[in-house]
Amino acid sequence: MFRTDKNNNPAAFTTDVASQGGLEYGKDYTLGDSFPHPCEHIFTAKLLGDPVALTIKVIDKIGYYTKAGQQRWSYIAIPKAIWDVLTMAQKRDIVGFHYHNEGGTAMINLFPNYSKITR
Fold it and tell me: Hey, what's the torsion of the CAs at 103, 109, 112, 115, to 10 degrees?
């Protein structure tokens, strides 16, 4: 099972990203799986609520780039000004794109356009 499904986290982001994105520990997420050696001190955020809504909330707040200008994900980076004008349905589809790229399978039903966005 992939980290996405095991941690209810379609973008497989870390607890640090969850915190930076405004999620509350114990309410919105807990510690999920640790990364493999030598990064076992880094944990995937295990999302406790609606995984799509929580992922959108994180991206709404912190976007696709770090403060240093680095991409957060190697397979996608959207300028904040573009992300901010997308509809919720479009944002959901982009979260579905994350999910596909992170190897998820169990939550496909959350992404009605999944087959269109994974081609």
Answer: 40
Contact 40, 14 (CB under 8 A): no
CB neighbour list of residue 27: distance below 8 Å, 6 or more residues apart:
48
DSSP states along 32-95:
EEEPPTT-TT-EEEEE-S-HHHHHHHHHHHH-SB-TTS-BSBTTB---HHHHTTS-HHHHHHHH
63-108, pLDDT tens digit by residue?
A: 999 999 999 999 999 999 999 999 999 999 999 999 999 999 999 9
DSSP per-residue codes, 83-107: HTTS-HHHHHHHHHHHHHHTT--TT
User: 38 preceded by cis ω (within 30°)?
Assistant: yes
